[in-house]
Write a structure and sequence with these properties.
The chain is an alpha+beta fold. The chain has one domain. Helices cover 21% and strands 44% of the residues. It is built from 3 helices and 12 strands. An 8-stranded antiparallel beta sheet has the order 4-5-3-6-12-11-8-7. Strands 1-2 form a two-stranded antiparallel ribbon. Strands 9-10 form a two-stranded antiparallel ribbon. β11 (130-134) and β12 (138-143) form a beta hairpin.
Length: 150
């Protein structure tokens, strides 16, 4: 089920839209690349980094849909936006609600929940499945969290 939901969301992101009622509801300006986190069953190539039992595969937006179709056991993914993106719009699209917010150095982190991603963790009675980081260089949106570092 997680693979189907992730495929749906990333497939639409790769096309540059998130469909609401059949029309283009949101346009994702500033989306630069996508990182998929999966297990070691995938071969290493120029787009991948192995860390422990995970493989991080980072591709451009135009390659995201094709790459995702080749992957099994996706554990999460991270969307990389440039700093020119509409930050309020991203929060409105990806967060149903935020659970907490804090600073790590100069990076603003927001944890929360999104109904667009089916998996979640329950912490102190709150659902968590999305993390957003606003840094000086870019904006990251991670499901279920940013697994690549900020």
């Amino acid at each position: 089920m997680k693979r189907i939901v992730a495929f749906f969301v990333i497939g639409l992101l790769a096309l540059g839209i998130l469909v609401g009622t059949g029309a283009n509801k949101y346009k994702f300006e500033g989306l630069e690349k996508v990182c998929f986190v999966t297990d070691l069953t995938h071969s290493e190539d120029e787009n991948s980094v192995i860390s422990g039992n995970d493989v991080y595969i980072t591709v451009g937006v135009s390659e995201a849909k094709e790459t995702m179709g080749k992957l099994d056991n996706i554990k999460g993914y991270v969307l990389y936006f440039n700093n020119d993106c509409d930050k309020d719009k991203l929060l409105n699209i990806f967060l149903d609600y935020s659970s907490d917010e804090y600073l790590v150095g100069n990076t603003r982190i927001i944890n929360g929940y999104s109904s667009k991603y089916s998996d979640f963790r329950l912490v102190d009675g709150k659902k968590y499945n999305v993390q957003v980081a606003f840094s000086e260089e870019n904006v990251l949106v991670g499901f279920p969290m940013i697994l690549t570092g900020f």
